[in-house]
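In this supplementary section we document a worked example of the pipeline. Step one takes a protein sequence of length 498 as its only input; no multiple sequence alignment statistics are reported here. Step two produces a three-dimensional model, which step three serialises into structure tokens for compact storage. The input and output of this example are shown verbatim.
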Amino acid sequence: MTKMPLLFTRGPPPDMTGPAKRQEVASLLDRLRTDLSEKNLFPPQRNELLEHLKILCRQPEDAELLFTKEGIETLTRHSFDSNSPTTSREALRCLANALVLEPSTRQIFVDLGCAPKAVDRLKNDNRDDEFLISRILFLTTYNTNIDFEKLIDEDHLADHLNTNVARHARVFSKESRKASAVVPDDAALSETLKLIFNITHYYPSRADVFAKSIPNILKILARRRILDPPLQQPVNYLINALLNLDLEDRKAVHFGFSPVFPKFDQKCNVERLVAILDKAVGHEESDEELEQVAAPLVTLLRRIYDFAPEGVKRYMQRTIMPSDDERAKPLGTTNTLPSRLLRLSTSPLAPALRENLSSLFFELSDKDATSFVHNVGYGFASGFLMSHDLPIPENALEAWSSNGGGGGGADGADSAPEPINPITGQRRSAEVPDRRAPMTMEEKEREAERLFVLFERLKRTGVVDMKHPVAEALHQGRLQELDDDDDDDGDGGDALKD
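The serialised model returned by step three reads:
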């Protein structure tokens, strides 16, 4: 029996650089390329070479040979032509890393005609294969001319992805949860969902082929434990994948009803999404972090509300809009979900989330400006209305009354109406009187001087063409001299004419 020689006592150091690294990469690729034709390596040797190549090329510097056509072809042949699953997966790991590190290699992969082979590999009921192949195909959605429509029609890509999502959903079936025998593979599921999202984003006309995955995605969302922080993988990818799909089932060819509102409990999926949102905005994350992860969830809730049954709409209004109980304080000052969302709706650090939340509040107010102002207060509503060229109600700054049943269309109570501060949304009866002493004339003059300096500084920046309001009033002849009798402090001065 032929004794298998040892290839290395230990691998090359991962921090190798310069000529030594280039020589080592060339040697590894040459051995792997030769083995394709001569089959002169035992499987453990071949796997060891691929592992060393993977470690050595985690940094692209001095690894240029790997990113050539010859280097990528060597990896693809070991990935898709090997009889050893271990060798194939080790080569796929090297290939995936190469496609991440050097975008030009993605087109090489496509030109070599490997995409159909990769899709065929998705048939395997193996989570490592799913993870690696889905990641490679996901990377080819950028910077290539790959034809995903052909892969869907001729190679059944959508069928394989739908099957993989269904496999993940089975882990959360009642039988599997009782047995506790199967552990969810979040990494593989995340890669599959990322690929679905990109395909439906770049090929929106083909989104319907992934509609079969909607119930399974919702099932996973509903039954998996909410993590901390909640919008980490795969939850964020589950939400993203739903964004481009036909949740309403407008064509009525898959279900005959929207799977978002199952007959046994129409609001169960919305309850779950609101619970995730509640925990997300309550987690100690910065506004910038929430901007990245929470905006898609709010977008999804807006989409669902647009075609939700009346009962689900009322539920969303009750849970997301400020209730009458919150009007004991100015809106946005408590720690409830509506208050936290209101504060985020004006955050300068999260523009996409800010816009999404303001739009959500407006839509929960039936897209009526008057109801919008009443529900969230003029302070939170005015910026959105002006930025969208929506007319501000003439009575926006007039006090109005609440019946004590919560905002946004919630059922009102029978208690007597109470006047509401239109700016803050707080009940007038709950406002704390301002017991501060009024400003003296000297304090007013100092404040005016500070404002004058600020206006001048802003004008000198050139960012905006700012005119000082006092100078403008003087130019328009709107200033008049005050007599000593008109000055409370007896100092005299100028005043604006009405």
